[in-house]
Amino acid sequence: MKSKLAFATFIAAMSLNVLAVDTSNVVKSYELKDGSKLHIFKDGKMAMENKYGKAVSMHEGKVMETKDGSKILMKGNEVFRLDDALIKGHREGG
């Protein structure tokens, strides 16, 4: 019984740590030629938002082109992090 209680306490503590992660650290956003947006977080990792406002997966290392013709190399794939930020209303990051 004590081991089950200890395990439940451990799981609850881990859940609180996950909830405490700040996902709204978007510092810069770029509009891409295809109408999607690239968001860059404080730690340099990136995430994609399609033209409909949904977080989408993008392969690391993919080259993307901004509306002004600049090229950006994808670093990371923070789909879940961006999805959480979008849900919380952080659609504009920079």
Structure notes:
The protein has about 90 residues and is an alpha+beta fold. It has one domain: Thrombin, subunit H, CATH 2.40.10.300. The chain is about 30% helix and about 25% strand. It is built from 2 helices and 6 strands; from the N terminus they run αββββββα. The strands form 2 sheets. Strands 1-2-3-4 form a 4-stranded antiparallel β-sheet. It has a two-stranded antiparallel sheet with strand order 5-6. About 10% of the residues have low confidence.
What can be said about this structure in brief?
This protein has 94 residues and is an alpha+beta fold. It is built from 2 helices and 6 strands, in the order H-E-E-E-E-E-E-H.
Helix content: 25-40%
* CATH class categorisation: Mainly Beta
Strand order of the largest sheet: 1-2-3-4
CATH topology: Thrombin, subunit H
Class by SSE composition: alpha+beta
* Order of H and E elements: HEEEEEEH
Tell me the distance between the termini: 51 Å
What general outline do the C-alpha atoms trace? Answer: elongated
Notable characteristics:
94 residues; Thrombin, subunit H; 2 helices; 6 strands; 29% helix; elongated
